[in-house]
Amino acid sequence: MILALMDFEKLHREESGRILSTLIRLLGDFDLAEEMLQEAYAVALQKWPAEGTPANPRSWLISTARHKAIDRLRREQRFGQKAEEIAKTAEFAVGPESELEEEMVGDDRLRLIFTCCHPSLPLEARVALTLRTVCGITTEEISRAFLVPLATMAQRLVRAKGKIREAGIPYRVPSQEELRDRLDGVLLVVYLIFNEGYLASSGDALVRRELCAEAIRLGRVLCGLLPQQAEAQALLGLMLLHDSRRDARVSAEGELILLDEQDRSLWHGEQVREGTQIVESALRRGAAGMYAVQASIAALHANAKTAAETDWAQIAALYDVLLRLRRRQ
């Protein structure tokens, strides 16, 4: 099977976060993992068009990056101290995926998300590092999305990775005792990414859809990795409902259109239905935080056929709940 360039780019966007998270665990170094992954991609671009795409591209890339890391460490005479950790990658030899491998990759992604969103990092660094490592977005793309000079964003990422290394921030999933507080920080990062796309704080475009899409993708990843966390579900539903109105929110002249003036035929009905179902599921499972309340409000708006048919009394009651929650913070 020959992999077209478009398919290769899709593979990179969808799998780079999974591959990188595993390499970071195995190599113990953000920069080395990123460099070896880039080298593995370069080898793939040379070999796959001629030899065909391997049955398991992810495992192939991990295995190739592992060998590249071993070669690098041998040249730098650091192989001895890293041999034991790198040896663990033997389980990722090219071949059919196993349930064990999928479970380990899932654990690695979760470790990476919580590491990138560690509270000791500045909030702006958490956002940038999450987009770069978990989502696989290039530094140039991130700088462009946030309208920050490339050199500034690159330095922000360097400092964040340096902080992780120097402060010894653990590459692990928080304990059950820590999980609630740490999860709130992760959800905040995801929501900040979405909000920056949904109503851009700077630049000519009022909406930057690529950021909304990445936040939703992150939300799906979190819900998949933490299926018992109802508030994560609520956030995903909230983002889907807001994003369902994307084609009706801005006029041809680039001006924001208020909710009651939007052409509701442009709303994405399938996304409204999915978002509503996710919110209802989260509420049934006990979600009662900020995201759950906001998502409930968004669902009432999204499911009203006209502005006049909106259940304003229920929305007002929910805003009272939201206000009380904010006062407790």
Descriptive account of the structure:
69% of the residues lie in helices and 0% in strands. Among the domains are: 1-89, Rna Polymerase Sigma Factor, Chain: A (Orthogonal Bundle), CATH 1.10.1740; 98-227, no CATH class. It has 329 residues and is mainly α. It is globular. α5 runs antiparallel to α6.
Which short descriptors sum up this protein?
329 residues, mainly alpha, Rna Polymerase Sigma Factor, Chain: A, 69% helix, 0% strand, globular
Give a short account of the largest sheet. Answer: none
Cα radius of gyration in angstroms: 22 Å
Query: Which bin fits the share of residues in helices?
Result: 55-70%
Principal-axes geometry comes out as globular
Name the helix and strand elements from N-terminus to C-terminus, one letter apiece: HHHHHHHHHHHHHH
- Structural class by helix and strand composition: mainly alpha
Distance between the termini: 55 Å
Strand content: under 5%
How many helices? The count is 14
Low-pLDDT residue intervals, each spanning 5 or more residues: 89-100
Q: What would the average pLDDT be, to the nearest integer?
A: 85
Tally of DSSP β-strands: 0
